[in-house]
Specification:
The complex is a heterotrimer. Chain A is an alpha+beta fold. Chain A has helices at residues 43-51, 93-103, 108-122, 137-149, 167-184, 195-201, 219-224, 229-234, 289-293; strands spanning 5-14, 17-27, 32-36, 58-63, 66-67, 78-81, 155-159, 187-192, 204-209, 212-217, 241-248, 251-254, 259-261, 274-281, 287-288, 297-302, 305-308, 312-319, 322-329, 339-344, 350-353. Chain A folds into two domains: 5-230, Rossmann fold (3-Layer(aba) Sandwich); 237-353, OB fold (Dihydrolipoamide Acetyltransferase, E2P), CATH 2.40.50. Chain A has a six-stranded mixed beta sheet, sandwiched between helices. A five-stranded antiparallel beta sheet of chain A has the order 13-12-11-14-21. The longest helix of chain A is centred in the middle third of the chain and has 18 residues, at 167-184. Chain B is mostly helical. Chain B has a domain at 100-304: MetI-like (MetI-like fold, Orthogonal Bundle). Chain B has 14 helices and no strands. The relative contact order of chain B is 0.13. Chain C folds into two domains: 2-73, no CATH class; 77-311, MetI-like (MetI-like fold). Chain C has 16 helices and no strands. Chain C has helices at residues 2-10, 16-26, 29-34, 36-56, 73-80, 82-113, 120-132, 135-145, 152-158, 175-200, 204-212, 217-228, 230-246, 249-254, 266-276, 280-307. In chain C, helix 6 packs antiparallel against helix 13 (230-246) and helix 13 runs antiparallel to helix 16 (280-307). The chains are: A alpha+beta, B mainly alpha, C mainly alpha. At the B-C interface, helix 1, helix 4, helix 5, helix 6 and helix 7 of B face helix 1, helix 3, helix 4, helix 6 and helix 7 of C.
Chain lengths: 360, 309, 313
């Protein structure tokens, strides 16, 4: 099947600064792709290139098989939703939705039909006569989505659409966007720095750093099998625990001499599993009590700080001389100074080479 | 981002065989660009033309001027007109040139600038941090008053200064400049102090500092940029003033603008255009130097009037 | 917050009359002392002098303002004086032209400057420098350029175009346009700077949205950006408008009201009657009319700015 969006060897420089470097990305029809990364990683730049709002320095962009590298945004078959909503303030919601179509000289009945459909999908019919100033943040964002919707395009681009909203509204609208995708089945490319949004919405996540895609995979793989130290550290809150040490065939020796058996770990290439390495373990993969005793590695530790989070409890301690956090169910009573046995299976963790920072 | 849409019509045709790759081809000369630059250059000429004519004329001799070509470059650079404008051009009454006017303007501008800025800074500080009952009303009237034509206040102010015994002296001009500089400067300082973090002021209050101590030790050291803007605004504004100088300064203290106008418009005998233009350039020189040296700060100063409080 | 700090101190045992006096005068005292120049300026100059001027405009004051009350006599005489009527007509014609041209050219230039052009700051510097000059300087330069015997007219004729005519400064029918050329030269750059600041204040994403919607650049400026700049436009109109009403120095330097009385303006009329004509009552009546004009301009603005606040976002 034809790719919905294809990016070939895309580069973008601002003067001497390389913002994107020979980037390749294929997006399937109807796929929900999230571009995730810290600010300045090039994710919004990439989106603006796809939209045609930025001129690329090298490479090509295809949308539905058509080379659109030199096309104007309006001719690319895309709709875009912005962080600041970018609604035209002096026009009513109805005018905001229809303005582009009117300028394009579309027939009146067709405009009305499309506006009505968008309003119905987004449930903004009662707002059509209002001006953006009289709308709440969530309503504005819905209108902004509507403006992309009436264009009847195949690809939707979202540029951090929820960043200006408060936490409650953000999670509500997140669900709505997911519902919208389920209903419309359009290709959606969504830029965010919020990993929760990325994990909940995406079919596939592209994690970016310094203009390069670090890993492109489904949320489960990204979370459980990060390809390098950067991705491992970026995804997950609280972040992954890292223990530095040396690998030699069957065991991993931490810097303080603690030995951790690695027989259960599934190395990509066993021959390379030697030398300096970093073991990463997610807080929820460290278990307590009887479960801990059954793990390949366990030890008695002393709890330093306890942070009750409501749904669960976060505890700080030291394993192999390194500060480590682990997660416990909220009904387990923990307190600072308490001693208990914790353990984990390295198979559920990740080993990274200290030299290349790549997954082993 | 705004110019690229103009190229929408000329979107390249992919069917001719060139595979679009890399940056969009952008011809250096598009019709839009040519129009934009032509209009800008036309207006640039309009704006520069008087400056050119003024300077060129001031270096010519009268016979050259009578030849009748204001564009022509002088045969040789001749400073006679400048010297005469500075030392011996006649203003109708005396023939001492512009130099007394220059020094009068200096004597008016320096104290007026200092007094008006100091008072306005204190006003702005009091209005933001020490609001008292009615302070906002006073401020509103002050701003509204700045739009009233000066002619409405002229005669009463003449009477007041005469009663105080300072009419026709430097003090009168200084007071008048302070009064009429107050609205815009107070607005400037009020907005600036309002943009500083209020926590600083609160912390100083908790530390036991009073009105003046906070002003001099906390606020002033943080206000250098706005003082520079106010300085530019006031020096150019007061230097360029004509009306207050002619009404309040008295014949002994007439500022440069008034002297200049007298030299050109009240002098008897055949007009000496080269001397007139030299005198004009000399009068414009001070604000022009300030303008070119201060650059963006000047823009900030003039735009400050547009920023509402 | 300053209030609460001091109120706690004075709460100790002061009551009734003394408490009221204390509250009015002692409370926040240093601030009130510091604001005395402002309070004096407002009460004595902006309020007091205005009322004084209005009051004495109803008297027959000649050389000194001691005359007796004569009702609207001064105003009747004012509008019976051709020089005043010419002044008012001139101000209206010049004002309308100046306002329209300054705004249109200022906006046009700002739009051109917004097209990511090269040498933007050089262009801006050149367009704004006349604004730094005195109206006297501006008036005198243009007086020389438009000098009919040795200025631009003669120069062009000497270059071979003998039919060329540019004698506006000496031509009663054209003298207002001469004033306009000089006034625009000084003021357009400032308007451009204001408008450019307004244009740059428009959210970048609005432009992106308009491009995705396929709206042509000119249409975006007219239908989206211009209405968004309402605040800047209103400010520009008020500033330019109050400058026009004050128009004085430029006329004095460029034409001194001539030829004849064909370029007289109200501000000059006031000055001449007060300080040269020895007819203070007339001058004050004319000044009061100028005040009325400004009030008429200001009321809609004040309403928009402060009265209609609820409508703004």
């Amino acid at each position: 099947m034809q790719h919905s969006v294809s990016i070939r060897d895309l580069s973008l420089n601002f003067g001497n600064v390389k913002v994107l470097e020979t980037l390749n990305l294929d997006i399937e029809q109807g796929e929900f792709i999230v571009l995730l990364g810290p600010s300045g990683c090039g994710k919004s730049t990439l989106l603006n290139c796809i939209a045609g709002l930025l001129d690329v320095s090298a490479g090509q962009i295809f949308i539905n098989g058509k080379n659109v590298t030199w096309e104007e945004p309006k001719d690319r078959g895309i709709g875009m939703v912005f962080q600041s909503y970018a609604l035209y303030p002096q026009m009513t919601v109805e005018r905001n939705l229809s303005f582009g179509l009117r300028v394009a000289g579309m027939k009146k009945e067709e405009i009305e039909r499309r506006v009505a459909r968008a309003a119905e999908i987004l449930q903004i019919q009662p707002l059509l006569g209002r001006k953006p100033a009289n709308l709440s943040g969530g309503q504005r964002q819905r209108v902004a989505i509507g403006r992309a919707l009436v264009r009847d395009v195949d690809v939707f681009l979202f540029d951090e659409p929820l960043s200006n909203l408060d936490a409650k509204l953000r999670s509500d609208l997140r669900v709505e966007i997911k519902r919208l995708h389920a209903r419309l089945k359009n290709t959606m490319i969504y830029v965010t720095h919020d990993q929760i949004e990325a994990l909940t919405l995406a079919d596939r996540i592209a994690i970016m750093k310094n203009g390069v895609i670090q890993q492109l995979a489904d949320p489960h793989t990204i979370y459980n099998k990060p390809v390098n130290l950067y991705v491992a550290g970026f995804i997950g809150s609280p972040s992954m625990n890292f223990i530095e040490g040396t690998l030699d065939g069957s065991s991993f020796t931490a810097e303080d001499g603690t030995a951790i058996p690695v027989a259960t770990y599934d190395f990509a290439d066993k021959s390379k599993a030697a030398g300096k390495a970093v073991l990463g373990v997610r807080p929820e993969h460290i278990l307590l009590g009887e479960e801990a005793a059954r793990m390949p590695y366990n030890a008695e530790v002393e709890i330093e700080i306890v942070e009750p989070m409501g749904s669960d409890t976060l505890a700080w301690t030291k394993i192999a001389g390194r500060p480590v956090t682990f997660r416990a169910a909220s009904d387990v009573h923990l307190e600072a100074g308490q001693k208990l046995v914790v353990g984990f299976d390295p198979a559920r963790g990740s080993f990274f080479s200290s030299d290349t920072t790549e997954r082993l | 981002m705004s110019q690229t849409a103009t190229m929408a019509g000329s979107a390249p045709d992919t069917s001719v065989g060139v595979e679009p790759r890399g940056p969009r081809p952008k011809p250096f000369f598009t019709p839009t660009k040519i129009i934009i630059y032509s209009v800008l250059v036309f207006f640039t000429l309009y704006f520069l033309f008087p400056l050119y004519v003024m300077v060129v004329t001031s270096f010519k001799t009268m016979p050259e001027i009578r030849f009748g070509n204001i564009f022509a470059f002088p045969n040789q650079i001749n400073f006679d007109a400048w010297i005469k404008a500075w030392t011996s051009a006649c203003t109708g009454l005396t023939c001492e040139g512009l130099s007394p006017g220059f020094w009068n303007s200096v004597k008016i501008t320096i104290p007026s600038t200092i007094v008006s800025i100091f008072i306005a800074a204190v006003n702005g500080y009091a209005l933001i941090n020490w609001r008292f009952k009615g302070s906002e009303l006073f401020f509103a009237i002050l701003i509204f008053g700045s739009f009233i034509p000066y002619q409405v206040f002229l005669y009463p102010l003449v009477m007041i200064t005469r009663e105080m015994g300072i009419f026709g002296t430097l003090q009168a001009v200084i007071i008048v400049h302070t009064i009429f500089g107050m609205p815009i400067l107070t607005l400037l300082f009020r907005n600036y102090f309002g943009s500083l973090p209020q926590e600083l002021f609160k912390a100083a209050r908790v530390d036991g500092a009073g009105f003046w101590r906070i002003f001099f030790e906390i606020m002033l050291p943080m206000s250098l940029p706005i003082f520079v803007v106010a300085l530019i605004l006031q020096v150019t504004g007061i230097w360029n003033d004509f009306l207050f100088g002619v009404v309040f300064a008295g014949t002994k203290n007439l500022p440069m603008t008034v002297q200049l106008n007298n030299i050109v418009n009240s002098a008897q005998g055949t007009p000496e255009y080269n001397v007139n233009m030299a005198a004009t350039v000399l009068t414009g020189l001070v604000p022009l130097i300030i303008y070119f040296v201060s650059g963006k700060l000047f823009v900030r100063g003039v735009a400050a009037g547009a920023v509402k409080g | 917050m300053a209030d609460t700090a001091v109120q706690r101190v004075e709460g100790a045992g002061i009551s009734g009359q003394r408490g009221f006096l204390r509250k009015t005068f002692v409370h926040n005292l240093p601030a009130k002392i510091a604001a005395l120049p402002m309070i004096a300026t407002v009460l004595i100059v902006f309020v007091g002098c205005t009322l004084w001027t209005i009051y004495y405009s109803f008297t027959n004051s000649k050389l000194l303002p001691t005359g007796k009350f004569v009702g609207f006599d001064q105003y009747e005489r004012l509008f019976g004086t051709s020089r005043w009527n010419v002044s008012v007509t001139n101000l209206i014609s010049y004002g309308a032209m100046s306002l329209v041209f300054t705004l249109v050219l200022g906006f046009l230039l700002a739009v051109l400057m917004d097209q990511k052009i090269r040498f933007e700051s050089a262009f801006r510097t050149i367009m704004l420098y006349p604004f730094a000059l005195s109206f006297i300087v501006t008036g005198l330069v243009w007086q020389w350029i438009m000098n009919p015997t040795l200025g631009l007219q003669t120069t062009i004729r000497n270059l071979g175009w003998t039919g060329f005519s540019f004698d506006w400064i000496a031509n009663p029918r054209m003298v207002l346009f001469a004033l306009l050329i000089a006034g625009l030269w000084q003021g357009v750059g400032f308007c451009m700077v204001l408008m450019l600041a307004g244009l740059r204040g428009v959210d970048d994403e609005i432009w992106k949205a308009a491009r995705v919607d396929g709206i042509p650049t000119w249409r975006t400026y007219v239908s989206i950006v211009l209405p968004m700049m309402r605040g800047v436009l209103v400010t520009a109109v008020v500033l330019i408008g109050s400058g026009i009403v004050r128009l004085y120095d430029l006329v004095v330097a460029l034409t001194n009201g001539g030829p004849g009385i064909s370029s007289e303006v109200p501000a000059k009329y006031v000055y001449n009657y007060m300080f040269s004509g020895g007819n203070i009552g007339q001058g004050l009546a004319a000044a009061s009319m100028m005040l009325l004009t400004v009030v008429i301009i200001m009321i809609p603005w004040a309403y928009l700015e402060f009265g209609g606040k609820g409508r703004q976002s």
